Amino acid sequence: MNKIEVKDVDFYYGNFKALNNITLDIEEKKVVAFIGPSGCGKSTFLRIFNRMNDLIPLTRLTGSVKIDNIDIYQKGINVDELRKKVGMVFQRPNPFPKTVFDNVAYGLSVNGVNDKNFIKEKVEESLRGAALWEEVKDKLKESAFALSGGQQQRLCIARALAISPSILLMDEPASALDPISTAKIEELI
Fold first, then answer.
1. pLDDT tens-digit profile of 128-180?
2. What is the Cα–Cα distance from 122 to 86, expressed in whole angstroms?
3. Which residues contact 13 (CB under 8 A, 6 or more apart)?
4. Under 8 Å CB-to-CB from 165, ≥6 apart: which residues?
5. Which CATH superfamily is domain 100-188 in?
6. In terms of C-beta density within 10 A (0-12 exposed, 13-18 middle, 19 or more buried), how is residue 89 classed?
7. DSSP-derived 3-state class of residue 40
8. For the residues of 61-94, what is the DSSP string, one character each?
């Protein structure tokens, strides 16, 4: 069974057609890369899977986008619940003005997780998954802004991993990073 099914998708910014007749199936547990020149619609396409484009005025989508065989654009879809399943890491690091620990724990907290031991374990697990634990295990109470750019990006990946999304979207997560940080992110993927 396919995890994602896109059929006949067109996407518009006002009258501008940014995506034209896209049909694509993606199997579960696969890494898929969208490659193309700047401005060709890669980021727009990625953002349809967690409906981030909904936040932009005068946008519309035609066709269907299914995740786990559910059309995520049908009426009645809870977008907040969808975004728990579909995590997103952006091109540039966007840590919250919080500690390293609180950045990773944020998604758990806002989703009602109160078990401090579970949160602590999940933060460590996520930081390990993002190849960052060894670098920050003694800095968990420091500001996320004190980390390097590469560390901040891996922190954002850890934050996305902490809520255990079934899909993780990454929009050029290593484009602004040094080669060592890029290699760590590629290894993580």
1. 988 899 999 999 999 999 999 889 989 999 999 999 999 999 998 887 777 88
2. 18
3. 56, 58, 59
4. 84, 85, 86, 87
5. P-loop containing nucleotide triphosphate hydrolases (3.40.50.300)
6. buried
7. coil
8. EEEEEEETTEETTSTT--HHHHHHHEEEE-SS--
Number of residues in the chain? 189
Question: Do 101 and 151 contact (CB within 8 A), yes or no?
Answer: no
Is-same-fold flag (2-77; 100-188)?
yes
Q: How far apart are CA 165 and CA 9, in angstroms?
A: 24
Q: Is the CB of residue 28 less than 8 Å from the CB of residue 67? A: no
Residue ranges of the domains in the chain?
A: 2-77, 100-188
Beta partners for 167?
Answer: 86
pTM: 0.83
Q: For residue 96, which of 186, 49, 160 has the smallest C-alpha distance?
A: 160
CA dihedral sign of residues 157, 107, 52, 165: positive
H-only helix segments in the chain? 42-47, 79-85, 100-110, 116-129, 133-136, 149-162, 179-188
Fold held by 2-77: Rossmann fold (3.40.50)
Residues 6+ positions from 187 with CB-CB distance below 8 Å: 131
What tokens were used for 140?
A: 């968990």
